[in-house]
Amino acid sequence: MRAAALAGALRGALLAGLLGLGAAQATAAPTLSLEQQARKAEVIVRATLGPPAEVRDGDVTYVAYPLTVTETIAGDPASLPRQGGAPALLFLKGLADLPDLRAGQDVIALLYSARLDSPLVGFNQGLYPVVNGSLVPGVTLAAAPATPSAPGTPATPAATPTAATSPAATTPPPATVITDPARLRAAILAAREARP
């Protein structure tokens, strides 16, 4: 009887441990706005990715993408890890949920300068591909807080009569989608200047 109780307790502990492990593996980084990414980034560049190469650092293997920096938006690209004499993006080999990266790709990258699992701010959120001169997909900027509508002015096209005449009615501003790399650069610089 005692052996059966012990076996049952061990099965329960093993199951609890496995469930806990699954939960830890499913942990994801919180979504950061462009403004948050810009404030956290230590280096921000527009660059072309070189061909990937495996790099060993002790027992750890990274996949390195050398960068040909075409524009430094903020920080010093020389502070980034290097591969083949050039600044590089180093990703922990086997890391899940990496963005689609390929040699020759033009990107705007918001980066940490330390060697981490991923150099991209927000655990892979800070990468913006530029295709044929446009950001693909476009970058949605956080909308400004809603502003009160004038009394008697509809708050939205589908506003109810009560909401249309209420002084507390608000009009949510439309989200701004940026596809022009120059506008993204300006938004990044504005966010960095506004840091506390």
Topology:
Layout: H1 2-25, H2 34-40, E1 43-49, E2 53-57, E3 60-74, E4 82-83, E5 86-92, E6 106-111, H3 121-124, E7 127-131, E8 134-135, E9 139-141, E10 147-148, H4 161-165, E11 170-171, E12 176-178, H5 181-193
Helix pairs in contact: 2-5
Task: Tell me about this structure.
The protein is an alpha+beta fold and 196 residues long. The protein has a domain at 34-131: Beta Barrel (OB fold (Dihydrolipoamide Acetyltransferase, E2P)). It is built from five helices and twelve strands. The chain has helices at residues 2-25, 34-40, 121-124, 161-165, 181-193, and strands at 43-49, 53-57, 60-74, 82-83, 86-92, 106-111, 127-131, 134-135, 139-141, 147-148, 170-171, 176-178. The strands form three sheets. Strands 1, 2, 3, 4, 5, 6, 7 and 8 form an eight-stranded antiparallel β-sheet that branches. Strands 9-12 form a two-stranded antiparallel ribbon. β4 and β5 form a beta hairpin. α2 (34-40) packs across α5. The longest helix has 24 residues, at 2-25. The termini are far apart. The model is unreliable at 1-27 and 146-167 (pLDDT under 50).
